[in-house]
Amino acid sequence: MRLPQEMSLAQIAQMLGGTVHGDGQIKVSTVSPSPVHAGEDDLAFVFDKQLVKKLPQCKAKAVLAPTGTEKDYPERTFILVDRPNLAIQRILTALKPKRYTPPAGIHPTAIIDPSTEIGEGVAIGPYVVIGPKCKIGARTIIMSHTVIGGEVIVGEDCHFYPACLIADYVKIGNRVILQQGAALGADGFGYVTERESNLEKNQSGRKDFSQDPNPLLKIPQIGNVVLEDDVEVGSYATIDRATMGSTVIGSGSKIDNLVMIAHNNRIGKDVMIIANAAVGGSCSVGDRSVLGGSANLSDHITMAPDAVLAGASGAMRDIGSGEIHAGTPALPGREFFGQIAAVRRMPKVLDDLKDLKKRIALLEQQILEKQVAAK
């Protein structure tokens, strides 16, 4: 990646809030995200411990690395920072290329109900459809083929990428980003039968199943979805409307691609939900909590603030504040990894047990032979 102009390490360090170890007057014009693939004239990024171990393979003349790395590699030239990922965020913010968005105004192919209110400086791209009685806040960008239902409220400075789907009555705050294909406000998954279902019987321990028709009757989902300020929703993530009331995503929360959030969930502030995770109905996720990739919460689970559910885990009970749970069904991290370690030791334990049984059998045989000889 090329810098806008050649810069000295001292200039870059000042921009990032870092310090130079070595010659600060060395100049670079390109940066590399990998120390292994960096060229001699690059500034290479090293932002975690695993990459630090690969520094001997790095050909770059200078390296952006965590403070303290210079102790193991005193001969190298570094820009040292306390938070490498924050430094990378700053430099990439400065280097990010232009993104192509529609200009302010309404594209002639867009279909907008006359009752909708459009704020100042809004940009609406080709083939956008906006239903009746909506309000679109100032400077919001709505890209092509996005569909917005009726009575939707959208705040200021939002950015909706192509093909987003926003159903009736959704409320969206300021500076919200919807990546392409995000879907808000689909019906929650709710059905009931007139008579006790075979599933209900099974769950209560009964097996008197009936083969008679007992149709699944749809429960109307009359609630909505509320996204507070500064939320970002990834590509093809889905957030269902509430059965009654609201499904709420708190301010600053970030939802990755292909996440499923069911009806009546309340997601707190600054929560991170990583790709392919699924949150069952009527869950409560506290502020700053994290769900790892492909993690799942059963219905009615509470994650207290600052809780973590590790990737590919399934929680079937509440997670307390600051706790890290892992596995399926999820357990406190230390307990889970202790069980994993115990399982890995099992082959040796079984070998030791077999050896012990042989020794006991031999000892018993010797005792029996002595008893016979004594007679």
Architecture overview:
The protein is an alpha/beta fold and 375 residues long. It folds into three domains: 2-95, Udp-n-acetylmuramoylalanyl-d-glutamate--2,6- Diaminopimelate Ligase, Chain: A, domain 1, CATH 3.40.1390; 164-329, UDP N-Acetylglucosamine Acyltransferase, domain 1 (3 Solenoid); 335-375. 19% of the residues lie in helices and 27% in strands. It contains five helices and 39 strands. The strands form five sheets. A twelve-stranded mixed beta sheet has the order 7-10-13-16-19-24-27-30-33-36-38-39, covered by helices on one side. Strands 8-11-14-17-20-25-28-31-34-37 form a ten-stranded parallel beta sheet, with no helix packed on it. It has a nine-stranded parallel beta sheet with strand order 9-12-15-18-23-26-29-32-35, with no helix packed on it. Strand 4, helix 2 (49-52) and strand 5 form a beta-alpha-beta unit. The mean pLDDT is 95.
Short description:
The protein is an alpha/beta fold and 375 residues long. Helix content is 19%, strand content 27%.
Keywords:
375 residues, alpha/beta, Udp-n-acetylmuramoylalanyl-d-glutamate--2,6- Diaminopimelate Ligase, Chain: A, domain 1, UDP N-Acetylglucosamine Acyltransferase, domain 1, twelve-stranded mixed β-sheet, ten-stranded parallel β-sheet, flat
Number of domains: 3
CA-CA gap between termini: 92 Å
CATH architecture of the largest domain: 3 Solenoid
Q: How is the largest sheet built, in terms of strand order? A: 7-10-13-16-19-24-27-30-33-36-38-39
What can be said about the biggest beta sheet? 12 strands, mixed
Query: Low-confidence stretches at least 5 residues in length (pLDDT < 50)?
Result: none
* Chain-averaged pLDDT: 95
Number of distinct helices? 5
Q: Supply the CATH superfamily name of the largest domain.
A: Hexapeptide repeat proteins
CATH class of the largest domain: Mainly Beta
